[in-house]
Design a protein that fits this description.
With 250 residues, this protein is an alpha+beta fold. The chain has 10 helices and 5 strands; from the N terminus they run βββααααβααβαααα. The chain has a 3-stranded antiparallel sheet, with no helix packed on it. A two-stranded antiparallel ribbon has the order 4-5. The longest helix is centred in the C-terminal third of the chain and has 16 residues. The radius of gyration is 20 Å and the shape is globular. The relative contact order is 0.17.
Length: 250
């Protein structure tokens, strides 16, 4: 169900180890939410949810890395429960997924195939553990040979050796939000199997090729898909809670 913007604006954000604090301004003045910095004095911790802060931080991170901007809907509430098993089985795609697996998982959440390809472009930044790409680096045939060798140098073939070693999802511009991710896929330089599936002779090849040539189209579709994803089953009204500590229910 759609939800409305709350009458507050937020900034600047203060990030600490294990703590996220956010200065938000309403008609009754500024307050810090949702996990306050004790040095800031008195705080009201019952207005801005952790869910909203994550949504804002995702948008601001993309903008900070020269990516697109979009309006973030606010007013979500946080879940009263937390479950690792539910998170692992609740629809998050695995690096080993085939194209059909990816399409089905996104469609189950009301996202189109084009949404899926656009959102996958977030892999233009970030890193992945060796355990997620070891099989691809050593066994895949749809991978550039020199790229595979580069990945193998930081990811030993033997399981248990170097499992936590990291490699950038986008080798070309790992700290820029751009369309290089799609160019990499055309060159068979997708780090994850699920990445390369987007351009491997399937139905999404043409979308990848469009984004590789038209960065503005990618950015526009990505922003629209992020807004659409943010509308998936939000807790609003009296549902859920406003967490005092984002790492656990109240």
């Amino acid at each position: 169900m759609p939800f409305k913007l709350k009458p507050y604006t937020c900034g600047p954000k203060v990030f600490k180890l294990g703590t996220i604090s956010l200065l938000c301004t309403r008609t009754d003045g500024p307050s810090w939410y949702p996990e306050p910095d004790p040095s800031a004095g008195r705080h009201n911790t019952s207005v801005v949810s952790c869910a909203d802060i994550i949504a804002l931080a995702a948008r601001d991170s993309v903008v900070a890395l020269a990516g697109p901007n979009w309006e973030v809907k606010l007013g979500r509430r946080d879940s009263k429960t937390a479950s690792l098993s539910a998170a692992n089985s609740g629809g998050i795609p695995y690096p080993s997924y085939s194209l059909s697996n990816l399409i089905n998982r996104f469609q189950a959440k009301g996202l189109s195939t084009r949404d899926m390809v656009a959102l996958s472009g977030a892999h233009t930044i970030g890193e992945s553990r060796c355990t997620n790409f070891r099989t691809r680096a050593y066994n895949s045939t749809d991978i550039d040979a020199s790229f595979a060798q580069t990945r193998q140098r930081s990811c030993p073939k033997t399981a248990g050796s170097g499992d936590n070693n990291l490699s950038p999802l986008d080798l070309q511009t790992p700290t820029d939000f751009d369309n290089a991710y799609y160019k990499n896929l055309i060159d068979q330089k997708g780090l994850l199997h699920s990445d390369q599936q987007l351009h491997s002779g399937g139905s999404t090849d043409s979308v990848v090729e469009t984004y590789s040539k038209d960065s503005k189209k990618f950015e526009s579709d990505f922003a629209a898909a992020m807004i659409k994803m943010g509308d998936i089953s939000p807790l609003t009204g009296s549902n859920g809670e406003i967490r005092k500590n984002c790492r656990k229910p109240n």
